[in-house]
From TrEMBL:
Residues 1-42 form the AN1-type domain. InterPro entries: AN1-like_Znf (IPR035896), Znf_AN1 (IPR000058). It comes from the Eukaryota. GO terms for molecular function: zinc ion binding. Keywords: Metal-binding, Zinc, Zinc-finger. SUPFAM superfamilies: AN1-like Zinc finger. PROSITE patterns: ZF_AN1. It comes from Tulasnella calospora MUT 4182. It holds the Pfam family zf-AN1. This is AN1-type domain-containing protein.
Length: 65
């Protein structure tokens, strides 16, 4: 693949996972083949799991009389 010649975007073009700078087309980790993509996915999965665990409703047990 040919290298991208587009200018890097300020702030939104900074990848927090690999600390590199990218244009608007390549700013997402999936689009620039981020070297930390797997750890990024694992962290997002864990964050989502914790959120869903906190929102889970548990039906109370019914006591027979």
């Amino acid at each position: 693949e040919a290298p991208c010649n587009s200018a890097a975007m300020r702030i939104v073009g900074d990848c927090p996972h690999c600390e590199s700078h990218f244009c608007g087309q390549h700013r997402l980790p999936e689009q620039h083949a981020c070297i930390n993509l797997e750890s990024c996915k694992a962290a997002a999965f864990e964050k989502n799991r914790e959120k869903l665990e906190g929102e889970r409703t548990v039906s109370s047990k019914l006591v027979s009389v």
